[in-house]
Amino acid sequence: MSIFPKISLRLEVENYLKEGFMNKEIVSAFGKEKAERKFETLLNHLSHPPSFTTVRVNTHLASVPHVKNLLLDELQKQFNGLSVPVIQHPDLQDVLLIPVIGPRRNIEKQQCEAIVGAQCGSAVLRGAHVYVPGIVSASKCMKAGDAVSVYSDIKGKCKKGAKEFDGTKVFLGNGISELGRREIFNGLPELKGMGVRMTEPVYLSPSFDNVLPSYLFLQNLPSAVVTHVLDPQPGEKILDLCAAPGGKTTHIAALMHNQGEVIALDKLPNKVKKIKQNALLLGLNSIRAFCFDGTKALKFDMVKDTEGEPPFFPESFDRILLDAPCSGMGQRPSMACSWTLKEVTSYQPLQRKLFTVAVKLLKPGGVLVYSTCTITLAENEEQVAWALTTFPCLQLQPQELKRANSRTLSQAPLAARRGCSARH
């Protein structure tokens, strides 16, 4: 049962989402009242964490049973002997699921309080401790070692450094303060250590901070599904067009048994650095990451050779993953989104530019997977319809996976195959 308020949205954004959700097909199938209840349920679910914490095993370096046993030992340490199962996903064989315990309703609130921002609050609900940069406010009496109740300021109204806050706040659980109020707000921007160690979170999830870093990758279930839909094969040349931070990139390389070539693009240097770090950590040397704008990845000069670097010739890749920049409205948990309607609806043109490049870079007979982490029709169903109309060479493919059954998921990516006879 829901214990948090539904995700806090601007009214214009909520109305926009509702208008799309309450379309003729849905209303016709369920009736208006049931459709409205389903929409409200969706908004409530978005503010809560998923039922499972999902981790992907790096099968390039270790077997799933071996990593599962190591993880069980780690959870015993974290949860002080509490028996928490680790479940191998029945269809995604390289994915492990850890049930999230909660919500726990019998936690006694403390007099001393720490207020954190909405983003930090979401991380706490997924098992993170509270780090100093996420703390917005702390009680004037708070000292290191104090028992502290942690709250999320979901509307962003709390002033930095405030000694008390009576605005809208959501209880996240209790912890022990690692630092006093004076140390937290002493004006030193480089202070980045742990501020509150969570001991009684409302939702109990394991922390994966430096836990089996070469063997495990913390990854949401739909993200892991996307790569299985792509179904990369050893020896192929594959493009991850918008790759940071590299979760899907490294998954592609692992499923290919590190045999072949995976090109990863992102236009921000720090994000490309993260892709390279993850590839190195996971022991995957088939990945080549470049700082490059994906909308410019198609080479028009057929003479100039860039020696395997972007931009690329048309029809260069066997498979392409376009995990497009999006409004992110499907990320969980998310208690608040302050974006305007203009911001939420701004991604469709960019997605279409990237889609156009991806189609031209795909070999005849190749597979293109388009995915987002949002719930808007404009970025999902409408984009699929647009792509199939704009590019007659594309054929929509059933998402019946060799390693997974996509029917178990609420969000599924678009898989399209380029017709063998198609040319641009």
UniProtKB/TrEMBL annotation:
Residues 141-424 form the SAM-dependent MTase RsmB/NOP-type domain. CDD domains: AdoMet_MTases, PUA_NSun6-like. One of its GO terms (biological process) is RNA methylation. Transmembrane segments: none annotated. GO terms for molecular function: RNA binding; RNA methyltransferase activity. The active site is at C373 (nucleophile). PANTHER family: NOP2 YEAST -RELATED NOL1/NOP2/FMU SUN DOMAIN-CONTAINING, TRNA (CYTOSINE(72)-C(5))-METHYLTRANSFERASE NSUN6. Belongs to the class I-like SAM-binding methyltransferase superfamily. RsmB/NOP family. This is NOP2/Sun RNA methyltransferase 6. It comes from Molossus molossus. The lineage of its organism: Eukaryota, Metazoa, Chordata, Craniata, Vertebrata.
